Amino acid sequence: MKICLVVSSSLAIEATGKRHYGATEAVMAEYQKGLIALGHTCDIKWLNEVQPNEYDIVHIMVANLCIEAAKRGIAYITSLHDHHAFYHGKDSFVYQQQLEAIKKSVFSIAHGEYVVDYFNETDKLFFLPHGVDTSYFTVTQEREINLNNAKLLMVSNNGMASNFLIDRKNFRIAIEAAKALDLSITIVGTDANNKFFEGNEDLLEYDKLTVIADNPPQDTLLELYHTHDLFIHPSSLEFGVPCLAQLEAASCCIPIIGTMKGVGSMVGLYKIDDTNITSEQVAEGIRYCIEKYPYVKDAMVKYRHNWDWSKVCERLERMYKAVQPQKYDSASVREQYLKTFN
Question: pTM of the predicted model, to two decimals?
Fold first, then answer.
């Protein structure tokens, strides 16, 4: 197949090494790598570089570009990445724009099962999980941990709707849990986190807190995963479930204490109730994962490859093949379409 992934921002996408771009660009880079490995042509272009019928598949990641593509007669597939549609509600402009993009698509993809349920005004939305490069995010070395030496790690960018003071990732709850157990905690992300802490300076008084807010390159991030023991992610809202950071931690086989909205779960996750997130819940999860650490880590080692991007791209390939327009009249492809989408 000849596939085009449409660029959705001005952030440069780098295939390897430093990852100084956002989550959507990270997903796009992995799709391209995986689809090329499966034998397809896969370009990344701006929408104005794409012509109608030039590609078998045009995959767009943001709603406004989808609507523009529809105006130009370009058939497209879209993925949903903007959590503001949930935050602002169904009467909001962002929800209505995303819904319009879904309805005008060949089909659409959500990366959280609860997101499929949320957009219940359309039957064109299907679930596809995110993945992780398991060959890069490798297993951490075994070491004994206890309530005196366990090192906690968060990898998150805080804020919501351009307000950096909204604690969407629940840094305060995580720090309070670490403080209650007298454990060190490292919070890693972009400058958005600096802006959060500027408005929450009291949190910086905890002497076992380390904040790294310079968007570290991927090799530094890997080192942080390898030098910490437990991953804390009590986020109140994610559109990718599990999110990229949780999957990176899972690939490194670091037990996770955090939320996962909906019915889903993953091996190695101590799941916190996302409707009632408290520091007590986080602290309880930390204690449990320390007590069961060898067992939990061994289970994660067994299942870590299930989340590899190669498996995600194989599923994406099947979805693409099921809807190629030139094959709509093929009974075998109709059967494949029904099988793909259950």
Answer: 0.90
The answer to whether 258 and 235 are in contact (CB under 8 A) is yes
- pLDDT tens readout for residues 255-284: 999 999 877 789 999 999 989 999 999 999
On whether both 107 and 159 belong to a single domain, the answer is no
Query: Based on the domain organization, do 179 and 299 belong to the same domain?
Result: yes
Residue 139 lies in a domain: no
Number of domains in the chain: 2
157 shares its domain with 265: yes
Same domain for 118 and 35?
yes
Contact 65, 10 (CB under 8 A): no
What does the angle CA 95 – CA 97 – CA 100 come to, to the nearest 5 degrees? 110
Q: Which two tokens stand for residue 101?
A: 């993009």
What's the domain range around 66?
A: 2-131+308-340
Residues 177 and 298 reside in one and the same domain: yes
Q: Please report, for the chain, how many H helices and E strands are present, in that order.
A: 13, 12
CA distance 208 to 316: 43
Output the CA torsion sign for 247, 313, 48, 110.
Answer: negative
Rounded Cα–Cα distance for residues 184 and 337 (Å)? 50
Tokens of 216: 């570290």
DSSP readout, 319-341?
HHHTT-GGGTT-HHHHHHHHHHT
Rounded distance between C-alpha atoms, residue 105 and residue 244, angstroms? 25
Report helix, strand or coil for 268. coil
Query: Could you read off the pLDDT of 187-215 as tens digits, one per residue?
Result: 999 999 999 999 999 999 999 999 999 99
